[in-house]
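cache lookup: miss for this entity combination. No prior model stored, computing from scratch. Input as submitted by user K.M.:
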Amino acid sequence: MSFDSTIQAKAIDLTKLSYEMTAEAGSGHPTTAASLAHLISVLMYSHMRYEPANPSHPSSDRLVLSEGHAVPIVYAACADLGVMIGRSKEEWHPMTREDAMSLRELDSVVDGHPNPIEGFPFFDTATGSLGQGLSHAAGLALAARLDDLDKRIFCIIGDGESREGNIWEAIDFIKDEALTAVCPIFNCNVFAQSGKVSHQQSAEVLQAKLEAYGFKVLRIDGHNPAAIQEALSEHARNQHNPEADLVAIVAKTTKGWGSPSQQGMGHHGKPAEGDELAEALSELDAKAKEVGAAEDTKLKIGMMTGKKPDAEPRKQPMSFEAALKEFGLEKVLQKGQYATRRAYGVALRALGHADHRVVALDADVQNSTFAEMFADDEALANRFFRCRIAEQNMFAVAAGLSAGGKVPYCSTFAKFVVRGYDQIEMAINSGSDLKVVGSHAGVSLAADGPSQMSLPDVAWFGAFSQMTRPDGVPGCYVLQPSDAYSAYALTLLMADHPGPCYMRTLRPDTEFLYGPNDTFTLGGHEVLSEGRDLLIVASGYMVHEANKALDILDSQGVDATLVDLYSLPFDGEAIMDLANDNGGNILTLEDNYGHGIGAAVASVAAEDGSGFTVEQMFVRNLPKSARTPEAITDYVGLSPEHIAGRAMAMLELTAA
Amino acid sequence: MSFDSTIQAKAIDLTKLSYEMTAEAGSGHPTTAASLAHLISVLMYSHMRYEPANPSHPSSDRLVLSEGHAVPIVYAACADLGVMIGRSKEEWHPMTREDAMSLRELDSVVDGHPNPIEGFPFFDTATGSLGQGLSHAAGLALAARLDDLDKRIFCIIGDGESREGNIWEAIDFIKDEALTAVCPIFNCNVFAQSGKVSHQQSAEVLQAKLEAYGFKVLRIDGHNPAAIQEALSEHARNQHNPEADLVAIVAKTTKGWGSPSQQGMGHHGKPAEGDELAEALSELDAKAKEVGAAEDTKLKIGMMTGKKPDAEPRKQPMSFEAALKEFGLEKVLQKGQYATRRAYGVALRALGHADHRVVALDADVQNSTFAEMFADDEALANRFFRCRIAEQNMFAVAAGLSAGGKVPYCSTFAKFVVRGYDQIEMAINSGSDLKVVGSHAGVSLAADGPSQMSLPDVAWFGAFSQMTRPDGVPGCYVLQPSDAYSAYALTLLMADHPGPCYMRTLRPDTEFLYGPNDTFTLGGHEVLSEGRDLLIVASGYMVHEANKALDILDSQGVDATLVDLYSLPFDGEAIMDLANDNGGNILTLEDNYGHGIGAAVASVAAEDGSGFTVEQMFVRNLPKSARTPEAITDYVGLSPEHIAGRAMAMLELTAA
């Protein structure tokens, strides 16, 4: 009984500390924590192979706490084990009980939910928005497989949480990829926040579902140390057996285990305080006697291999023209036009050869986004992951891949990127180095209609372009290349930048605006035409519409400046200097809804206060299908004629 | 064989027209359409109970084409049957073959994907972004149940599409609610866009999954008319049998059925043109002979009941104070403060009693959003739907409820609303009358940390506030009440407005700023304090921070105007008039990332061109946990001291 009694003792100690720290914080989820007391004790004190002194070592087994609100139990274990924490080298230290009691304090790294970027590297990803952790685990497992690291990824998922579709997208993906390194553990404690979980999320139905998805399910008592250890061991035995089924664990647990006064409804996310706390703690002491808790054996944490992935040197990727030649596409150069989505495909392939960190993920549109150029290259195919029609899982897997040291490029239609916005935000919050490429952006895809058009995307990613993470990295760069040269260059540049980027590519072919000697930067822009009457600021497809409008304006004697503002954020001062040279008149053009590029330019102009006038043209009515880009840009009021007309009106001129 | 031969003839005719219309359009998905030829023929010519002349009659059976790209086959049937279409009364006419051939034209209502708002009322909702239709169907079924309408909702889901987690959230929900009126039909045609579907989406595994979820599965040959009819009939027999299992149909089909030259890979979303088209059509003619196609019996479309829901009159809801008294909460009035999320709960309950159309949906946080006030009222409980932890399904069910004539209020944490942005956008595109209420908005929830904070939400919904639907309704109002009176009033106002609204409510109690005589409007704002030096524009929680800043500024001799800008869009001219009265100086405050309120105000100011100066304060660094709202607002630079300091700097004053 010594393993049992020792785990019982640990479980009870950790539970008590969970109650104490949440009482101190005045918020948190001690009863959920209690339901995991034994699972966490077996994992962190015995089964997992890691070093508390080196919690993010690449060869260590990982724990993804998908039900992030249960985190006090992990904090308790980390405090007991002295797992290293700290925001900076100076603050780096073994976690203490005092740290645990600082839970949710502003100046504490012990955040309300798993939040590695604040200085808690035991966790790889931020969780707390439910249903994403299993995909993170899958990404970590893929990275380990690529790096030939023998490690396992344990993922704890709440029963209520398993209602999230993302969980089942992840289960399908783990099955497709045969990711035996992932150990999904469902914590069935029956009580969700506002009531009992549905029968659909009961241990019995979860087991049936997992079996239907192709898993072998071990249903255990989640408070029985021996049963937990045996189930984890069975998972371990299966890991390297190609004949074996994937294994998932369904653990029946009690929310508020050990403290009857904290069980049942009404205790979710409510710390016990005062007398209630005292009662819960004394019940746990009584429980300790009842179960014979005693630290009568020394537990030994599993030993990690200590192996690190090979650090292959990065090379300078080929130039666009060299890549076209290399890939047998040199005819493109004569054509003088090429879709930015195609240039992305060429760049992704070239980049894949130059940078071993780069991996690519797709959601069944690789032949539309042209990520297929990467997929179809035999030398790269093992770094290409088909996520099928399941965008949430794709972006959350990418967060896991990034945590595993990879640089994931995820591409799908820009419209379908929205499906994973929550996953993308959690990736940004996790410190991920995520590249998102949305194709068929804006309205120029025309025929398929609004169900395939990305319209509020610049607003959403734009919001991240205005914030900074604790690691000093901007929340996101928003990149809108207008031609193949810039699309190629920006695809490469994203890999050099250690943070999130969102690039919009276009369906139609667009004319070359740049050549081999043009250079681009994140945060940059390009002056395509210099005038003196009006500054036109455009992005992506609208640069071409603006170019046509320039001809009309020229015929009317109007001499406009055209800027290709291919990046958010951008150099506001430089844009205002250009505005100054153009009578203070700015016209912005974008093929999406408002709160985007125009609002960003207006924000800079209005902050300047020098009396610039900024008029914004964007999509102001719900688009529909049209057979040509010209027809739809006309419908939404963004044709060259509309642009020229608006410019004339701004200058109070009438057409000659 | 007459039913068989007639359906075969219809299936082949419709398939041919699908090829022809997509060839004419130059894009579209004829091979997917062909895989549904027999299913659509049996449904629309025989099984479904509806009237082509009255395609949106509330008692008619409905078809939700979740795999929206298959739509040409439905268009073909509608053209053959003369289903009524048209954007306006003047254009209202039976669909013709000529209409079908206008597929994807700008001036055609025959859009690239199902798009009812353009004038195609046979469909209830816009689909085309995959995985949402089954939730729409569930919403339609709930509405029918509430209205005691005997109808069925057929929903066709692609096999590749069934990878989307939303589908499984819907399946769980349909099971929970025992929605026997919904008939899910999985179209297993094996080929997705970029390859074969995963084994996880094969007919066999889909069957196993559905059985694990608690469905009886009928696996049929989707090109066998009798088998289709029998499966649909079995579903019908089960509809009113409380003992029976829920039934789902898994149909094995052939992508490009009838045209071997169009089968296999490489034919997704690519119309056959020229010789290829001729070959496909001639293969179909040969197939007609092979299967004995002949219109040798008259098919009769099922007859709908013609019943309409009772139109209960709407009453004027109670006032806030009357509601508090009615619900035993009168003590709130003495306290002088109350969280806006609580006021929302009170309003939702009062509204439920006054307006029978109002229904409420929750995602397991009803006791945090206070939607529980509606749920716990016995008279309203049947209009409250627990969607559990599955936000995508919640919002898409709401789109179905709206199409069924209800006014759905969906509430969850504002942070978790993002999980359903795609579903919300498709609802907006569908013409839905959707109300989204996100609680714990911004940073003031503090302790739980960034995984629970909504930060780019104002940017995203703000983008919709700048566009208009074809029905003339704004894409979305963004409402940010700062106190309980305004939260109550705005909750009621949303029901009077026939379109999408997003309201942010707050976790902490906030002081009353208004009283019983104050009135509010969508698009409105309120001047809370009149000064002359500086205009401060704030929303929600920041109004209270601004109020505290006013005291500091007052002590420094600065006389600021404070506007509670509780709505986007807003009256820009009125705000600029106020700016004029305040030296042209505007300072905006919001507790979210940029591209929000500040950008909207800056856009108006910059368009005006009168030299206003707009400085924006918003969240510029990733927040973390803190134990109090004060600590976190200070951390993100939005404390009253920060505000006052920025105001002084704007005015080039130094603190006395």
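stored under new cache key. Chain B has a mean pLDDT of 97.
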